[in-house]
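Lab manual, section 2.4: Encoding a predicted structure.

Procedure: take the sequence of the chain (144 residues), apply the prediction step described in section 2.3, and record the output as structure tokens. A sample record is shown.
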Amino acid sequence: MHRKAFIKACGLTCLGGTALLSSMLESCSNTKTISGTIVDSDLVVPLSAFLTKGNEYRKYVVVHHDKLKYPICVYRFSADQYSALLMRCPHQGAELQVFGDRLQCPAHGSEFSDKGAVQNGPADTNLRTFPITINNNQINISLK
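Recorded output:
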């Protein structure tokens, strides 16, 4: 290979790698982690947590609170349809990770749908879900 061709090939490879890294980091930025507020027995999350800077809607947000041992993943399916899932694997209690429309256990690989249903074991129990109501531009997740 001639020197010019080598430099050109290396340059194109670097540009391709940069574009790939950029798109991977952009997809990570779509994950939103927020702190919820507990009012009575509800975890309260503003609906605005699902909006991006470009006024598009995120598929989910991960909600933390100091009183909760595990975070809760809230998926948005439409303006009035959500699911709230405890991010605890029922197999051995590991905290789950979110990958788009599925949650996965880093300990043993169990996978769950965005509605909490077991997709792959070793877990054999669905995730704990919480009832949701929407009032005054807020999502109220009942922790009862």
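Check your result against the sample. The chain has two domains: 1-30, 32-142.
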